[in-house]
């Protein structure tokens, strides 16, 4: 007989054994001495314990293995949930970090734009001041040169008059 068929036959036999033991347990309870006015029965503890032990022995290994698998499933599920929470927490933290970095970059760009604008305004003001100062100095230089040339003109005119008078005297 193939192993699978043998296993199925064995499981059926185990189930029949369990049902027989349950029938004997029920028969024990039904034939036990009744306690008057309570609705209870006095059952032989040793006989019940013996039947419970037989039930335990009759439980197929597959049922016991299934119980172990269910426990492992619960453990794996719990671990998976914990890992999922951990991964979600890390992802949220990375998201917050990225958002903060993005905000920092935006703030840095705004600050850099402000600094550049301030520098351009200051440079424009300095250029305007330099032009105004140069214009003022040019005007002062022109006024000084005009005054020097006028004085020179007066001196030359006086000198020329003196030369002409000297020439007239000599002629």
Count of helical regions:
3
The strand line-up of the biggest sheet is: 1-2
What's the total number of strands? 2
The SS-based structural class is: mainly alpha
Order of helices and strands: HEEHH
Radius of gyration: 58 Å
Helix content: over 70%
Strand content: under 5%
Give the SSE layout.
Blueprint lengths: L2 H28 L2 E3 L4 E3 L2 H14 L2 H110 L1
Helix pairs in contact: 1-2
Give a verbal description of the structure:
- With 171 residues, the chain is mainly alpha-helical.
- The protein has a domain at 91-171.
- 89% of the residues lie in helices and 4% in strands.
- The chain contains 3 helices and 2 strands; from the N terminus they run H-E-E-H-H.
- It has helices at residues 3-30, 45-58, 61-170; strands at residues 33-35, 40-42.
- Strands 1-2 form a two-stranded antiparallel ribbon.
- Helix 1 runs antiparallel to helix 2 (45-58).
- The radius of gyration is 58 Å and the shape is rod-shaped.
- The chain starts with a helix and ends with a helix.
């Amino acid at each position: 007989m193939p192993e699978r068929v043998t296993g199925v036959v064995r499981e059926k036999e185990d189930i029949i054994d369990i049902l027989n033991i349950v029938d004997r347990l029920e028969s024990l309870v039904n034939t036990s001495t009744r306690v008057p006015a309570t609705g209870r029965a006095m059952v032989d503890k040793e006989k019940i314990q013996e039947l419970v032990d037989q039930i335990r022995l009759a439980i197929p290994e597959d049922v016991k293995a299934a119980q172990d698998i269910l426990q492992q499933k619960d453990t794996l599920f719990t671990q998976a949930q914990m890992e999922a929470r951990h991964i979600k927490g890390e992802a949220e933290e990375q998201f917050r970090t990225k958002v903060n970095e993005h905000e920092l970059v935006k703030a840095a760009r705004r600050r850099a734009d402000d600094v550049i604008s301030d520098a351009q305004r200051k440079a424009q003001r300095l250029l305007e001041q330099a032009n105004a100062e140069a214009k003022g100095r040019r005007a002062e230089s022109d006024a000084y040169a005009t005054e020097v040339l006028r004085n020179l003109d007066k001196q030359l005119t006086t000198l020329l008059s003196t030369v002409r008078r000297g020439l007239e005297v000599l002629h």
